[in-house]
């Protein structure tokens, strides 16, 4: 028996995304597996799902039964241990503890509203650590942040470059800025939580830096105290432009020129989910994060981008792209 409260599902024409809310597993399903999961989570019993598979796909009873069992047999969801090169956070009661290389740095309340330091910091290093946790703090307060560089590719629309660390998203954003686009952000793209559209905050990173400097000053004045962080939630008060395109930068390949491949909706939603910051792994937060990723995949143009090797080639490709789209 499948516990429907344990899973969150978003269905698209090309498949679905499934999140195991209990173990944190994240799965992309093909069309037939999506068919099975959608009906199973809706409360259909095994025989009803098998009958539906037979009618829809022209299968015999044994094949339909095998397909149902296969679709529901998910791989074991394993949570990857944090690398000692990454900022890690864990919930202790109602408090989130942030650590770096296994050394505790900060505690943050579960609404993102207060913070305190857990060790002394040099004045120059504290703002960098605060900027590193800013996306998580924002997400705890309900503000979505993409791990992305971005540029303004037309007077009113933003293109964002998403990818794993080292994929080239920041380098790509700077290459397009060199080609004449306005740089929006290098690493963190803040989205307006008050808009039903996908509106990018144009000065989000500058506001994060200002928050980090202000918080640093207060922490240094009172090192052991709790400090209010809620000024960061006014980040969306800044100027905004419509986010139109997402490029998922392929870190495993390089070409002689820019190559774009349009992604299916479920594939796109999976990439957005993977490259977005979410505040916590509790079921409510995961459901909200999955829903936001799915809605964005349905609204935006999402391409897998294979970039040319080397900065000169990347800048030339960016210039050609901007010239072609402007003409």
Map the helices and strands.
Elements: E1 7-12, E2 15-20, E3 26-29, H1 31-41, H2 46-57, H3 61-72, E4 87-92, E5 95-100, E6 103-109, E7 114-117, H4 126-140, E8 145-154, E9 157-162, H5 169-178, E10 182-185, E11 188-190, E12 199-201, H6 204-221, E13 227-228, E14 240-249, E15 259-262, H7 265-274, E16 276-277, H8 283-299, E17 301-306, H9 311-326
Parallel strand pairs: 9-14, 14-17
Antiparallel strand pairs: 1-2, 2-3, 4-5, 5-6, 6-7, 7-13, 8-9, 8-10, 8-11, 8-16, 12-14, 15-17
Helix pairs in contact: 1-3, 2-3, 4-6, 5-9, 7-8
Please characterize this protein's 3D structure.
This protein has 327 residues and is an alpha+beta fold. It folds into two domains: 4-72; 87-326, Phosphoenolpyruvate Carboxykinase, domain 3, CATH 3.90.228. The protein contains nine helices and 17 strands. The protein has helices at residues 31-41, 46-57, 61-72, 126-140, 169-178, 204-221, 265-274, 283-299, 311-326, and strands spanning 7-12, 15-20, 26-29, 87-92, 95-100, 103-109, 114-117, 145-154, 157-162, 182-185, 188-190, 199-201, 227-228, 240-249, 259-262, 276-277, 301-306. The strands form three sheets. Strands 8, 9, 10, 11, 12, 14, 15, 16 and 17 form a nine-stranded mixed beta sheet that branches. Strands 4-5-6-7-13 form a five-stranded antiparallel beta sheet, with helices on one face. A three-stranded antiparallel beta sheet has the order 1-2-3, with helices on both faces. A hairpin with a 4-residue loop joins strand 6 and strand 7. Helix 2 (46-57) crosses helix 3 and helix 7 (265-274) packs across helix 8. The longest helix has 18 residues, at 204-221. Mean pLDDT is 91; it is low at 78-84.
